[in-house]
Amino acid sequence: MTPEQLISTLYVFILAAFLGYQVISRVPPLLHTPLMSATNAISGISLVGSLVTAGAHETLVSAILGFVAVFCSSTNVVSGFVITERMLKMFRRDKKSASPEPQEKRV
Questions:
Q1: What does the pLDDT look like over 49-92, one tens digit per residue?
Q2: 28 — alpha (psi -120 to 50), left (phi > 0) or beta?
Q3: Stated pTM of the model
Q4: Which DSSP category does 106 fall into?
Q5: Residue 2: exposure state from Cβ atoms within 10 A (0-12, 13-18, ≥19)
Q6: DSSP secondary structure string, 32-96?
Q7: SS3 label, residue 15
Q8: Packing angle, helices 3-25 and 60-89, rounded to 10
Q9: C-alpha span between 10 and 61 (Å, rounded)
Q10: Spatial contact of 2 and 60, defined as CB atoms under 8 Å apart
């Protein structure tokens, strides 16, 4: 890999990371849970791509960046599922309050 290719590759990587951070940080909190399912799917796709990049091992730099991408994608997928599960627990009923209480009869 020539120095010019390395610089352009790192430039694209840094630009993508910055752009992703800016897009996610501007999403209102109420939309995080519905969007989490879609972002988990996208993160899964990026995980597959990063596995291919890390596994190709063309150069040492591509292997290292591939490993970093695998780590970041895996962290994103796992934390996305954890956060989604936590948010869904907020909408579940407790077993005590799930059973209907007897209502008084009105005459």
A1: 888 888 888 888 888 888 998 998 888 888 878 877 887 787 77
A2: beta
A3: 0.52
A4: P
A5: exposed
A6: HHHHHHHHHHHHHHHHHHHHHHHHH--SHHHHHHHHHHHHHHHHHHHHHHHHHHHHHHTTSPPHH
A7: helix
A8: 10
A9: 10
A10: no
